[in-house]
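User: Predict the structure for this protein chain, please.
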Amino acid sequence: MLKAQHLSLNSEILFKKGGIMQQTFKLRKFAPDDLQNVMQINRVCLPENYTDFFFMDLHQRFPETFIVAEENGEIAGYIMCRIEVGLSNFGFGGLIKKGHVVSIAVMPQYRRKGIARALINKGLDGMQYYKAKQCFLEVRVTNDAAISLYKKLGFEVTRTISGYYSDGEDAYVMTKKL
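Assistant: Here is the predicted structure, written as structure tokens:
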């Protein structure tokens, strides 16, 4: 029953602008036909790029956490996650299921509309579907806009990884209990 309820993902998101609610984008699960568009968003928005196999592997293993946002029929952004088993990022308990936000990106022309927030929230829903107890992600220590958003969504910095990115920049690991 939970699965059927969760699969009705074509949620319409409204954005409040000047006091008037406007429909601006919708969220849905990634489909294989979206691959080239998602890879293009990844190339435009992020220096860390992945192979088509990597995207498709995560889609096949964790379809509930691979979500795209569409506006006017175009893919504006995506979130791609996986479920892992490991020690709690908060330093307590034994092995737990954790959701890992592997990649999230929104095209520049679609930013500041709540798309990233909606994608993260829908990704978190998918992680709960897979019974994850925590969610974590890595973010560049200089990415103030993303860090601010993640904090607003209840994430906290749990550690720093020196030289995490290929250009040598450090990453914060940010974690949220689910």
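The CA atoms of residues 157 and 174 lie 4 Å apart.
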